[in-house]
């Protein structure tokens, strides 16, 4: 299945006369628009959306079992969804966080699935620029929920990272 992620807006496409502040606002506006498009696209998938996030059927089953066994009910899920919705209304949600990455002093590990559109190539490059020492591990054939798709390998990776 191909990626449904929208094509990112590349910095080279922006007018070179724009000020840094204008570029920052444009990036935030673009991020909002892309987020809205992502939510709309995911909604269009309906029940099949889980296949986009987690291509592996067995992993989807494990996630469904965890959700079903969760010690809270629909009200808690609704509140979580409401909270997520409010987060995206916060202007800081879409602001570039690269400066904050540069201030980190702890070692960094990013775990991602090869089939996940997040983070984008541009976001990975920003991380590499801000944190050249960061470890980036990509799990082949995995989607958004690497920890559910490859739990043992993911746990081993995190344990090894923390012990190092």
Number of helices: 8
CATH class category: Alpha Beta
Radius of gyration from CA coordinates: 18 Å
Strand percentage lies at: 5-15%
Q: Runs with pLDDT <50, length 5+?
A: 1-17
Instruction: State the end-to-end CA separation.
Output: 37 Å
Under CATH, the topology is which?
A: Rossmann fold
The helix fraction, in percent, is: 55-70%
| Order of adjacent strands in the largest pleated sheet | 1-2
Mean pLDDT: 81
Give the count of structural domains: 1
What's this model, at a glance?
By secondary structure, the protein is mostly helical. It is built from eight helices and two strands; from the N terminus they run αααααβαβαα.
Can you walk through the features of this model?
The longest helix has 26 residues, at 20-45. The chain has one domain: Rossmann fold (3-Layer(aba) Sandwich), CATH 3.40.50.1820. The chain is 55% helix and 6% strand. It is globular, with a radius of gyration of 18 Å. The protein has a two-stranded parallel ribbon. The protein is mainly alpha-helical and 164 residues long.
């Amino acid at each position: 299945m191909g990626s449904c992620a929208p094509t990112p807006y590349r910095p080279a496409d922006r007018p070179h006369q724009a000020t840094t502040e204008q570029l920052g606002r444009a990036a935030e506006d673009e991020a909002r628009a892309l987020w809205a498009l992502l939510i709309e696209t995911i909604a269009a998938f309906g029940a099949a959306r889980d296949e986009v996030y987690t291509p592996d059927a067995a992993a989807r089953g494990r996630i469904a079992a965890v959700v079903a066994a969760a010690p809270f009910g629909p009200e808690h899920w609704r509140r979580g969804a409401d909270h997520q919705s409010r987060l995206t209304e916060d202007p800081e949600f879409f602001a570039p966080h690269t400066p904050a990455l540069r201030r980190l002093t702890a070692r960094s590990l990013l775990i991602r699935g090869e089939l996940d559109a997040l983070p984008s190539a541009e976001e990975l490059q920003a991380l590499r620029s801000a944190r050249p020492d960061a470890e980036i591990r990509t799990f082949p054939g995995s989607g958004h929920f690497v920890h559910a798709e490859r739990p043992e390998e993911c746990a081993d990776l995190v344990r090894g990272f923390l012990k190092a």
